Each structure stands twice: as C-alpha cells, then as structure tokens.
Amino acid sequence: MSSIVSPLRLLLLGAPGSGKGTQTSKLLKRFPSINSLSSGDVLRSQIALNSPIGQEASGYIKMGRLVPDSTMVQLITSQLQQKNWLHSDATWLLDGFPRTAPQAQALNVILSESNANINMVVELDVDQSVILERIEARWVHLPSGRVYSLDYNPPKVPFKDDITGESLSKRDDDTAEVFQKRLDQYNSEIEPLKRFYEAQGTLHKISGNTSDIIFPKLETLILENFGK
Ligand code: AMP
C-alpha cells in the first residue's frame, strides 16, 4: 500500500463537530509515520491536571469561547518543542490549532525559523445542520481524545473505550447552547484563517457529510502530494 515519502505537516480545519478527531484517528491508522497534536486534547489534559493554564482555559471552554491567542501560542509551541517537531524532516498533524489568523501568524514565524512550515491545510466542509444533529451522539474517551458516535462509530462495548475499556464521557461543551456558540465563533474566525493559508498556497477543501465520504478524499490528497 502506498505511504508518505516526504515530510507532511498538515493542519486540519473544520467546524467543531466536523470530524477532525475522527479523520485524525483514521489518518494515524492509515499512515503510521504521522503523529498528531490536538489543541482541545492538550487543553482538556491541562484542565484534568488543574494546572494554571487549565484553570484559565476551563472558563473559556465552558462558555464556548476561544482561549486567548497568547496562551494558546505559548502552550502549543512548548508542546512542539517537547515533541521535537521543530525540524524540516518532521511529519505531523495539528488539529484545532491555529484557529485564528493571529495564532497562524505567530506559529508561522516559529515554524519558519525551524524550516518546518505547515505544507498542507485541509478544510473539512460539513453541513452545519448535519453537525448539530451529530453532536448529540458524540461520546469521547477523555484521556486519549478518541471520539465515538453512537450512530456511526459506536464503541464495541456501550459507553466504554475500545482500547482501555475505560468509561466514555460527554464533553461539557457539547450541550446544544454552548455548541451553537462554538459554531458561531468558528464561523467568525475561519475566513481570515483561510485567507492566510490561501496566500501561502497550502489550502485545500474536502466536502462531505460523513467521515466515510471525507476520508478517502483526504487519503488521496495526501498521497498525491506527499506519497508514492
Ligand atoms: P476542540 O476540542 O478543538 O473543539 O476544542 C475545545 C475548546 O478548546 C474550544 O471550544 C476552545 O474553547 C478551546 N480551544 C481549542 N483550541 C483552541 C485554539 N487554537 N484557540 C483557542 N481556543 C481553543
């Protein structure tokens, strides 16, 4: 089966609930050379640790608002350093960061210095009416970030993680009211972010209302550009 042969630094963009987490899991299975970092997962683990950043972030997250750019840039940059991802041979995937144009600009400066720029950005384009229906069915394994849907991708044992057997949870910010705020926030931030990556020539868009429709298109796009 074909694989990735040149360094891929991928950013997945998409509304909350568009399936970034699901596509990430599928990509990690299909391409073992990819590692991923989800800003939402990093924040949720900071909250679980009750760290100063976790305490700051939890208020914003509960309200469906974005955590301030400066906090996010600091947090994710230190993760990139710890993971040794700041070099030109690195292959990785970011999910959920950058989420605003100022975050993208700040990250771009850091990555450019290391010759490790993002070289593919993919917007997952899913109807927002479909997303709202789908979010009701979403359950997560918080420690790993694995996402399940009671409709499309149910766990093997009800409400238990397939790998660890631990209990699944509902995210606090997946209630209808907070979720609508998160969608509104996404819609107001996404255009400048897309313009930033369009100007860099890295932006692609994949449309589809289920992960089974989106994934093969994503796989093909990656192999066309970075595979053999
Ligand atoms: P997610 O799991 O990506 O949906 O993120 C959950 C929540 O974490 C978001 O609703 C935001 O409150 C916060 N968050 C995650 N990533 C970022 C980011 N790049 N910038 C600001 N806030 C973020």
Features:
alpha/beta; 7 strands; two-stranded antiparallel sheet; globular; Rossmann fold; binds adenosine monophosphate; five-stranded parallel beta sheet; 228 residues; single chain; 8 helices
Description:
- It contains eight helices and seven strands.
- The protein is an alpha/beta fold and 228 residues long.
- It has one domain (9-226): P-loop containing nucleotide triphosphate hydrolases (Rossmann fold, 3-Layer(aba) Sandwich), CATH 3.40.50.
- The strands form two sheets. Strands 2-3-1-4-7 form a five-stranded parallel beta sheet, sandwiched between helices. The protein has a two-stranded antiparallel ribbon with strand order 5-6.
- A hairpin with a 4-residue loop joins β5 and β6 (146-149).
- α2 packs across α3, α4 (69-82) runs parallel beside α5 and α5 packs across α7.
- It is globular and about 40 Å long.
- Adenosine monophosphate (AMP) is lined by residues 16, 39-40, 43, 60-61, 64-67, 72, 96-97, 99, 103, 173, 182.
- Number of E-state strands: 7
What share of the residues does DSSP label as strand, in percent? 5-15%
General form = globular
Q: Can you identify the CATH class?
A: Alpha Beta
Count of spatially separate domains: 1
Helix content: 40-55%
Q: With helices defined by DSSP (H or I, 4 residues minimum), what is the helix count?
A: 8
Poorly predicted regions are none
CATH homologous superfamily classification = P-loop containing nucleotide triphosphate hydrolases
First-residue to last-residue Cα separation: 9 Å
- Along the chain, the helix and strand elements come as EHEHHHEHEHEEHEH
Q: Using the 3D structure, state the CATH architecture.
A: 3-Layer(aba) Sandwich
Mean pLDDT: 94
The fold-level CATH name is Rossmann fold
Helix/strand-derived class? Answer: alpha/beta
Cα gyration radius (Å): 17 Å
Distinct compounds present: adenosine monophosphate
Pfam families: ADK, ADK_lid
Family: Belongs to the adenylate kinase family. AK3 subfamily.
Region (NMPbind): 38-67
Keywords: GTP-binding, Kinase, Mitochondrion, Nucleotide-binding, Transferase
